[in-house]
Amino acid sequence: MSSSDSQPPQDDQQWETRLQQVEETLINLRRRYSQIQRDRARKEQLEAKLQRLQSELESLEHHLESSLVTWKDFAEPFWLAVRFGGLGIIIGWLLNSSNS
């Protein structure tokens, strides 16, 4: 039996300690990789949800804007302007023709 076949117990213990550290590091790396995978999937879900919400918000804004401004809202002021504007023009013509 040669001296290289039998290692002192201290070398075995160092080897075991280093191996355990490597295993723990690998476990932590796998956990981190799994977390990254979950985070990427969640990010994609949230981006898709954000796009849907933005589209829905734009649609709601369009509906609200179109419902706020209707012909009925402008009908009365429009006809008042036509009536009094037309009346003003007629009075202006009458006053102009009476001065001539």
UniProtKB/TrEMBL annotation:
Residues 12-70 form a coiled coil. The lineage of its organism: Bacteria, Bacillati, Cyanobacteriota, Cyanophyceae, Nodosilineales. It comes from Dactylococcopsis salina (strain PCC 8305) (Myxobactron salinum). This is DUF2203 domain-containing protein. Keywords: Coiled coil, Membrane, Transmembrane, Transmembrane helix. It comes from the Bacteria. The chain crosses the membrane at residues 78-95.
